[in-house]
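User: Structure please.
Assistant: Input sequence and predicted structure:
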Amino acid sequence: MPEPRLTVVTRTGCHLCDVAKDEISRIAADTGVGWTELSVDGDPALEREYGDRVPVIMLDGREHGYWRVEEDRLRRDLAH
């Protein structure tokens, strides 16, 4: 399995997080990149950093966007 290039920062009970995970899973499968999920639940530092903006999409360890997956932009950036 390739090293995950994508991370979805989530929290329990977040509908937008569920949608983002489904979209990222599909995009990752199409492009052959790995992805992982990181929950803010139970981590005060992550909660402070991302709590109001979940889901947050990270690409190569950097914030790419939040609340919604910008599919066209993400696919373009994954190609680089």
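The chain has a mean pLDDT of 95.
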